[in-house]
Structure formats: C-alpha cells, structure tokens
Amino acid sequence: MSPKRLSAEERDRFSWQLARLLYRTTRLFGLTGTATALICLSLPGAMEFTSYLTCVVLLAVLAVAQTVMTYRPDPLWMILTYSIGLSTIAAIYIPADGQLNMGTGSAISALGAWGIGSMATILVSTWGQLVCLALAFLSTIGTILALSTGINPRTLPLLVFISVGWGVSTMFGLWLRSSFPRIMARVASIGRAHNVERRATETETQRHRDARLLHDTVLATLTLLAHSGVGVAPEALRAQAESDGALLTRLRLGESPQPKSSGEYTLTNTAELALGGTLEALKRRFGSMGLDINWHGSGQLGLPGGKLEAFVLALSECLENVRRHSGQTVAHVTLSDDGEVVRGVVTDAGVGFDPQAVEDGRLGFAESVVARVRDAGGSVRVFSAPDAGTTVVLEVPK
C-alpha cells in the first residue's frame, strides 16, 4: 500500500514517526562519534593538556548542540552543530601542526565520520536537503585538506573513513525513507483489521446482552402465562406484561434500554440506587409474585457501579430460578463483604437438582448468572442435589 492511500491522520502519524526515528538515529550516531573522539583524545600522550582542555570544552558544546538539534529540529541548530564540529576538528589539528598521532587521528576520524557526518541521515527528504548534504560533505573534506595542506599518506585514511561514515549515514537515511512507508502502511492495515474485529466483538457482546434481556423479561412473562399465573396476583402479572411490551417496543425502535431487564427494579440503573433501596425493590417485586426473601448479612457492598449492577442482576436471576423451580415460597440471601470479595449466597429448601445433569448451553443460568458474574471478574458455584435444596454462591472481587 502506498502512503498516498493512507488517510490524512495516518499520513500525519507516518510522517511524525519517520521524523522521530531519523532524528533519534542522528542523535545516536552523533553522540557516539563525539564520545569516541573524547576517548581517543584522552589517551596518554595524544595532546598537550591545554589543547586537550580546549577540545574537551568544544566536544561538550558539540554534544549539547547535537542533542538540541535532534529534539528541536531547525536549520540554524544544524548549521551551529556543523560549525562546532568543524571547529573541534581544527582545534585538534592545529596544535598538532599536521603531525597526527593515533589518538588525534582517530578523534578527527570519529568527528568527521559520525560527529557531524551523522547529519546526513536527516538530509535525505528533499532534493534541497540532498544538495545541502553534498555541500556539507565537500566542506568537511575541504577543511581536512586545508588543515593538512593536501593529500598525504596520513590524511588519506582520514578522508576514506570520513567518506565511508557520510556514505553509511546517507544510505541509512535513504533506506529508512524507502522502507518506513511500507511498514506504516502495514501497521495501518493491521489497525483497521483490529477495529473491524473489535466492532464484531462488540456486536456479539450486544447479542449476548440482548439474549439476557429477552430471558429476564419476555420468557419470564411467558412462563407465568404458561402456568396460568398460578400464585401471582393479577395486578403483578399485568404490570410485568405491560413493562415487557414497552421494552420490546423500545427495542424495535433501535433503543438500548438500561439496564438489560424489565420489571419495577429494572428500568432504573441499579448503579445509581443505594443498595438498600435496590434490595428492598427486589423484595417487593418477588413478594408480589409469591416469593418471600429473607436478607442476612451486610447491607453495604463496596462495589463500583458496573460490578454492582452485574452482581444485583445475577442475584435477581437466582431468585427468579428459586421462584420458578424450587417449589418454595421462601428464599434466603446472605450478603458479605470481607474487603476484597463481595459474596452473595442464595439458598432455598426446595426440590433441588443434579448440577451435572444441567446442559451447558442452557441460556438462563449460563448467560444471566454465570456470564454476568464472570464479566465482572467473579465466579459462581452451585451446590444442589435432588430433594436437598439449592445453594448458589456468587463472588465478585472489589
């Protein structure tokens, strides 16, 4: 994919990342050359002490200029850095009177090839920059020749090494310029694929939520109708059916009611209610359907809004299962908060069942209880046996 096919935002990100990489590389090369020159000049007998101090000060100023130049790109900083680099080369060359030793020769090579030659990495973006690069290289070579009064066996290795350094920096910059667009185009395509997958995941999650919604609302009402409303006051059945009808109408219009269930307690966000009010609303709702709830334990649960809502809705579904399947009219709910985990225990003395015989794909328990608690980072345990009642333990970490 060509950079021209990227969006404007992707092109901006591409340009910023490329410039960042080029300037980081230039800074690394330049500081490496400066540090190498300092080490070479520090070798015993490389220079007289006075000249050495002068060169150390110039190298320190050069390192600062190299750092500032790559953090605040500006032509003036580049010219200043280049000028300081040439001045440092002259400060090494002049006291030696052209008689370079291993230390001074190596220092000049490091400065010429990397200390200032590293700027070639960032001078490859336009034809104008390439012209400036050629002029800077020729000026560096010309300075060396002027200081050494021509080409001789001592300066020839310097010229070769400096030429190689500038060439490597130039080729590296050109390589980055040519390869980085392909890399960024690939990254952009991966990002778009990720967004598509994320939207698909969100859609699937919404389908699961809608499945829970249907189970908690319409199927509950249909169950009451299938049993002819036995044990349920006509007013409660009528109110439940009206609530379900309104909810389905809103779904058909494309709305997403919150939270995902119906009934008196359902069309108000449980995260915005005090826990006591929420539990009392559950008690009244199930009481109107013939199931008395006895609350035990703490009335304060330190859960954030999202986890509290999932916990209360899962608890409500457990109570709905007690009402529909246990054959009992009383359920016990024990709530506790030990500072790390909030725990809810729903117990009934009903007919019970064999948990191993329950199909994994049953929507009621798997989606409305287990999935809700798992989404909140918690777990669900079920203890039951035929004719021995049922206990469901919900645990959600804080």
Automatic annotation (TrEMBL):
Domain Histidine kinase/HSP90-like ATPase: 310-397
Entry-linked SUPFAM superfamilies: ATPase domain of HSP90 chaperone/DNA topoisomerase II/histidine kinase (SSF55874)
A Pfam family: HATPase_c
Record keywords, A-Z: Kinase, Membrane, Transferase, Transmembrane, Transmembrane helix, Two-component regulatory system
CDD domains assigned to the protein according to its UniProt record, in alphabetical order: HATPase_UhpB-NarQ-NarX-like (cd16917)
Xref: InterPro entries: HATPase_C_sf, HATPase_dom, Sensor_HK_TwoCompSys
Molecular function (Gene Ontology), one example: kinase activity
GO process annotations (BP): phosphorelay signal transduction system
Residues annotated as transmembrane: 21-44, 50-69, 76-96, 102-123, 130-151, 157-176
PANTHER family: NITRATE/NITRITE SENSOR PROTEIN NARX-RELATED, OXYGEN SENSOR HISTIDINE KINASE NREB
Name of the featured protein: Histidine kinase
